[in-house]
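re the bet — no i am not wrong, look at it urself. input seq straight from the record:
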Amino acid sequence: MRATLAVTIFCALLAGCSTAKPRPSQVPKTTFSSFDQPVRGAVEKRYGPNEINFKACDLKEFLAIYQELSGRNVIQSGSLPQIVLSLRNQTQLTRTEALQLFDTALAQNGIAMVLSGEKSVKAVPLAAACQEAGPVIDLPADQLPDAGSFMVRIVHLKKAKASELVPVIQPFAKVPNGIFPIERERVIVLRDFSSNIRQMLKMIDIIEGDGGR
């Protein structure tokens, strides 16, 4: 199973994410993440239903496919849980959506994928995610992936106190110690999965009376 899937994804990587001819000044994209936004005019590679199909796949093999799919070096923590994953896509997916699916499957099994620069991603236990310098993502809440993709969001408050917001948004948190209030600066730092931060931002906007972040 792994060999077949690896060949499929490897061929997709060779084909590239877009068939559109880049302008001479542009550098072709070689690494990808679950936070990538659609490029206007680009034709993305899509994976058809059941094209991603893991049955009782061990973590080492799963992360090897993740590396091929993302084009990034996967750096594995020495304390990752020994898990077996089964995963199949029911609907058509872009490369970005496939990475979101992979992130979510790993998150459900206690593993966070933390982007590290443009070329790497770290696979760490969920409890250790906040010890890593995760990516600060400034996309509007409704554009954040509804997935288990680890990210950092810095929220500048207008009205509410940071300490008052913590008990309101804490129920949406999954990553241990992921909410860090800075009272004096009226700032709250969120470190969690994108799907959870989407919900936290909605609650903050309701309390702040804001139209969206």
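see?? Residues 10-22 have pLDDT under 50 and may be disordered. told u. also The chain is about 30% helix and 25% strand. so pay up
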